[in-house]
Amino acid sequence: MPSSLPILPNSLKDIPRPCTAQNILMPGQLPNDSMPSHHSAPQSATLHPRASVVRSRYSAMVGYSASSADSVSSHERHLMAAPFICQSSNVKVLQSLCNNSTHGGHTEPTWFPASVDGVPDYTDAVAVPHNHTQSGTSTIPSNVAKQNEWWADIMDDDWKDILDATATDSQSKSMAQPSNSTASQPAFNKSTSSYSGEICPVTSPSNNSSASATKQRMRWTPELHECFVQAVNKLGGSEKATPKGVLKLMKVDGLTIYHVKSHLQKYRTARFKPDLSEGVTQGKTTQELSLDLKTSMDLTEALRLQMEVQKRLHEQLEIQRKLQLRIEEQGKYLQKMFEKQCKSSTLKVQDPSSGDTATPSEPSHSADKDSDASLDPNRTGVNPPGVAEFGENSTNVGANQKTARTELSSSVTTANDGSELPQREAS
Amino acid sequence: MKFGKWLKKQIEQSLPEWREQFVSYKELKQIVSSISGCPPSPADEAEFVALLDAEIDKINAFFLEQEEEFIIMHRELQEVIKTALERKATVPAAQHEAEIAEIRREIVNFHGEMVLLLNYSSINYIGAAKILKKYDKRTGGVLRLPVIETVREQPFFKTETVSQMVRECEAMMEAVFPTAPEGQAAARRDRDALAAAEQRIFRNTVAALLTMQDVRSGSSTHGRHSLPPLNLPDSDWLRSFQPPSPIPIQ
Hints:
The structure holds two protein chains of two kinds. By secondary structure, chain A is mainly α.
């Protein structure tokens, strides 16, 4: 089971599930034995948690009717501010919220910050909003035909596959129901837009702007790719396989032919790149080959060196990342404590910015689950002082901060010193 | 070193195709500087948020695209290794060696590219955090905390898949690299080191490490959300791989 990133509990949303195996279910059969070992089960994208999160987020946003900051408690402000950054669609909506005071008629909460929601991340290829894709059977023929024409105009020949898929495959989930789509938006766009996993479309629902910039980003995962490769192989290889065929074989909820097509394209070009076992060396004389052998030995050392430096960078990035998360976490924790204290006691804490290192409690513990050993001394170091002293006045908290910061630095230094990077002898 | 300058340096030293993909920090800063109100007007705030939003979109798109290609490549590499090892008995030794050499090169470069993508993610995150801090400072707003939290939920920040592939790459090395011979002449290593240094991935990696150290050295705005200073014990050695830089690194 791969280690997951620390999952920050967030008052704004449901606690995300652990990222890995639960999200992308494939109703079809997936050859499990050939799957990489990371994840336990085939997955599919599901939407239910996302839908509820989005609705709650949406209602929070509606509450924001341009009220000024100070009339709102800080908690609510966080709730409202958080969606800001997600997608430009949110901004547009927010602006209109600012301008109009009423918002009842807002459609499609599913367009809202999917990327902020609780549905986790990496393995989430696609998610399917249930209210959009109760599709399959009864596609209204005339609408479909109209959509097909529209598409035929602007797409190249390869897209005939898509059109075929729509017309013939009554079970196809790749085209959402034309009956559900708003008039100005082509069904295709609607469908891809609905299947974001953690992804939002760029265009907001409130302005049915042109669908051309459908920035639908699918997130491929190793498992999904494995499924893809199996399908391609069954169809006779990357050259022979067609997007439509692959899509059918994969049977992944919410995967569109568009996704498959672009992925297949990438796959084909990648195939040619590592032209390795293709006998690049065929036709060389034994002499030449043995010369190659000699230089390759030197090269190996150089490569090893390069690898070492790269590993170093990776290690540093990981450490830095963990630190960033913990610092933020502790900041949040302090904030919460501060608010609680403000409410419950008459003690006025003068300077909220002074302390930051109270006890890392539960949030930290989940973060520390996969922290490396070098961070552990730090954790135990910080715990005891924080608990006892946080309830007191701010100067103590400030002192804690210094202590903790030193400990953080020293733990990082320890991590550095402990590395195995070969040192230069001659320096 | 100021972040804007540091970012510029990182971008210059990054892979050419990536240069346009970094967060447009300067542009964001310009917006922040031009905001006069305190608190900011909704229009100003919206403008800032819109740009940041768009930047995040851009970063996400690039990251996911790269990730997808890495996933494909990762699997291909594994297949190629398997095939090459299986064929070991049936092909001439020299050819096998050549194949293996090529594979090693691929592994190391692939590993490097992935790590650089992780670096990219980190740089952009830091950029976002800093610009938000600037915004709050300038306007008395409270965007930073909730928004940076949202940023942490973005695909480009969730790098576990790539990180996992990096680790697997390191494991792949076991299969194709000979066990490290102990007594290497120092001269030979120097020569090899120089050869390797010319490879741009390697160069970028070294630069990334060193500038990471620089950006985390003490600064005037060190605060409770800042990372502690980074002291790489072998930074001198790393620096020896770099040509002398016109920008003094303090």
